[in-house]
Write a structure and sequence with these properties.
By secondary structure, this protein is of the alpha+beta class. The chain is 15% helix and 44% strand. It has two helices and ten strands, in the order βββββββαβββα. A hairpin with a 5-residue loop joins strand 2 and strand 3.
């Protein structure tokens, strides 16, 4: 595949702002002379982490309210990496805040993006093992119910109507391949 020259950014302007988001209009000129204005969420440079806890013969998921879909979603614990934190430090902190466990062993699987046409966000997917009970106070407005899912039915999660978020599905397939490579599936 040949490397395409990146379009020239001619102008960037904030067109909307909220407490959480800044929307930018980005005026681009492509190598063929075509010009377009795209909108994107202003890049923040902060990454996030998603943690897949593996205990004996099951995974631990949580149910958390998602205001975007106005529903409770089944998925893996996740959160932003704080300034100065490593991926593993953030993974362990989020696990303690949302699941009530720490992990003695953390394994990085992959960094994934989400809607790169609009967001620069990166999610680091990490497996947590050798868990021990430890809780930290998080920023969740309510307790997050846990769901223990058997390893011998991983793909059964795809049949759950509230397990639909793309990053969770990506994490499921990544951890499945990781478990297979270790001879655990």
């Amino acid at each position: 595949m040949r490397n395409l020259p990146k379009p020239k950014i001619l102008h960037v302007e904030t067109v909307a702002r909220s407490r959480l988001f800044n929307v930018e209009a980005v005026d681009l000129e492509f190598s063929n002379g075509e010009r377009r204005v795209y909108e994107r969420m202003r890049p923040t440079g902060r990454e996030a982490v998603m943690i897949v806890p593996v205990v004996d013969n099951h995974l631990i998921l949580i149910r958390e309210y998602a205001v975007g879909t106005e529903s409770y979603e089944l998925g893996f614990s996740k959160g932003l990496i704080d300034p100065g934190e490593t991926v593993n430090e953030a993974a362990n902190r989020e696990l303690k805040e949302e699941v009530g466990f720490g992990a003695r062993k953390l394994t990085f699987l992959k960094k994934v993006g989400m809607a790169p046409s609009y967001f620069s966000s990166q999610m680091n997917i990490v497996v947590a093992e050798d868990l021990y009970p430890e809780s930290l106070e998080g920023d969740e407005p309510e307790e997050l119910p846990q769901v223990h899912w058997p390893l011998d039915n991983l793909l059964g999660l795809l049949d759950e109507p509230d397990f639909s978020e793309a990053r969770n599905i990506s994490a499921l397939f990544l951890v499945r391949e990781w478990l297979k490579a270790q001879g655990r599936l």
